[in-house]
Amino acid sequence: MAHIDVKSRQVSGSRARGDLPALTLDAVYEIAKIMTSAADPISEMPSVLNVLSSFIGLGNGALALLSDPVAGQAGKQVNPYVIAATIRGRREEPPDCGAIPEAVARGVFRTGVPIVAWDVEDEFGTEAVPPQARGKRHTMVAVPVREASRSPLVIGVLAAYRAHDDEMAGLTENDVNVLTMVSSLLEQALRFRRMVARDRERVMNDAARALKAAKGMETSGDSLPPIRIDGIIGESDEIAQVIARISRVAKTKAAVLLRGESGTGKELFARAIHSQSDRAKKPFISVNCAALSESLLESELFGHEKGAFTGASGQKKGRFELADKGTLFLDEIGEISPEFQAKLLRVLQESEFERVGGTQTIKTDFRLIAATNRDLEEAVASGKFRADLYFRICVVPIVLPPLRERPGDIKPLAELFLKQFNEQNGTEIAFAPNAMATLCSCKFPGNVRELENCVNRAAALSMDDMIHADEMACKQGTCLSEELWRLQSGDSSPIGGLASGQIITPRVVSGPPPSAAPAAPQASLPPGCPAQPAVQPRKTANTAREELISAMEQAGWVQAKAARILGMTPRQIAYALKKHGIEVQKF
To answer: How many domains does the chain have?
Structure first.
């Protein structure tokens, strides 16, 4: 198609709603919230199109995207684009499904210019109007979605329709502007997700190459003695690989991110990196980011001047300043707020900061080691963790294996903890063979920290100088792991760390209800390993609809009251009612 006529007509502004600017601003704001928090922007497009429909009357929206070339029998490309999302949901449909006129979509893809068709049926025929909108005259607006803001490459087409009997009909200029803004938001979201995916792949590839190189060095140097670091106990291959990597990275200034479940000893390994570096004689400063509020964390890290806030009776040096020429360990870094992430990023980039309440810029030289049990990649993709900060702290990622993946380390660790207990309490307690066998068969979801707790409890309650298997908690029905799993519910746990970040995923275990008699232990579970609870069901769309109806009934079908009950705005309630197809009852 060489050219598409764009017919436009000017309609008196008296036909538009008086609050059109406010409605438009609200729509763009809601769409921006959806797009900035979306892990997959395309999957959220149906919600975006619903917002356009409910707020400003742009209905039957659709998104077309270029598809991967598919070679036909004659080597020709079939379906150069697909309808990736409509107001009804996300699903790939062929170009001739009726969501967007093919002539319009191809024209926008080719020219990169928005197209406005005053009367779609008159210009492109009845088939150009979506089936659910036929029977009325419609204006259609289609705008390009570019690869980048100024890129000539068009990767998609965003279109929507407005019925002529709508009280805002004829506001084509406003419609073009709104769709263009939505297109820009989609472009930014797609570009950001591609950047994160690309950088994540690079980091993972670098880590894989480093691990492969470490394994090659270990296998090629069989005649050399294994590397050992004071304070780290373990004879498994997994720990040997971690120690070998620590020994190499410790000599550099690169930032290290220690990753692993809670209880794997991340601070111990951080101290090991410090002790093997050329900063070993300088301070090792540790901060638990999850233990302090944002204001206290800022004061702890940056320090403060006298009178900076109530209670600041004198000047205080922060941890950044105290770690000068040494190592700063930030534990639980995945817990800091987005606002504080921006403040932390500046220090890591410039190595300078100001104390709270001060104006003097202080330079510092520290080696950063961070630790987390969170999935930071998922947090970056969902907008909860800054991508630029992620790449500052995750230069060299080191994954600490959980204890269940290195059962050979249970015995030396248990013997070390029992030795420490004897030294602290003046006792000479030892393990009976059957007690050690019981320990080694446990999975220890709480990792090394749980093992230490188990050993100390058994030693404290031992009847003589020997710990026997029948004195272990798992043999007496008082296993700590079992109690932790019992207290855990849903995606969070009252026991900080056991299920933080969903590192440990409970298996579904079928069995009698809690009121029934306890069932015999499953043969597939090793002794000492607690039965794990069933996964809690997630809230479904049906549940959300039922909650909305319940709130409306409780409020006497007054939307403002229902909004207060659900903690929403009246506009959000109106959108939700339309989204779920709920008809408002009138009395």
So the answer is: 4
Average pLDDT, the chain: 77
Instruction: At 371, list the tokens.
Output: 């630790």
Alpha-carbon distance of 469 to 67, in angstroms, equals: 63
Domain co-membership, 370 together with 482: no
Q: Which of 401, 420, 454 is the last residue of a domain?
A: 401
Residues 75 and 144 in one domain: yes
Pull the structure tokens for residue 159.
Answer: 């279109």
3-state DSSP call for residue 430?
A: strand
Do residue 185 and residue 44 come from a single domain? yes
Q: Number of helices and strands (H, E) in the chain? A: 19, 17
Sheet containing 89-93, strands listed edge to edge, beginning at the edge strand earlier in sequence: 89-93, 81-86, 59-66, 154-163, 138-146, 115-117
The token pair at 399 is 């994954």
The DSSP result for 487-498, as a single string, is: H-BTTB-SSTTT
Same domain, 357 and 381: yes
In whole angstroms, give the CA distance from residue 335 to residue 338.
Answer: 9
pLDDT surpasses 60 at 517? no
Give the DSSP H/E element, type plus range, for residue 480. Answer: helix 480-487
User: Both ends of the chain: CA-CA distance in Å?
Assistant: 55
Please tell me the distance from the alpha carbon of residue 26 to that of residue 362, in angstroms, as a whole number: 43
Round to whole Å and give the CA distance between 278 and 365: 13
CATH of the domain at 429: 1.10.8.60
Distances 312 to 131, 301, 305, 306, 319 between C-alpha atoms, Å: 69, 15, 7, 5, 16
CB atoms within 10 A of CB 238: 16
pTM over 0.70: no
Residue at 543: amino acid letter: T
Secondary structure class of 29 (helix, strand, coil): helix
Which among 81, 84, 68, 65 has a CA at the least distance from the CA of 144?
65
pLDDT single digits (tens) 370-387: 999 888 888 888 888 988
pLDDT at 271: 92
User: d(Cα 203, Cα 137) in Å, to the nearest integer?
Assistant: 53
Residue 320 lies in a domain: yes
CA distance 49 to 407: 53
Paired sense of beta strands 138-146 and 154-163, if any: antiparallel
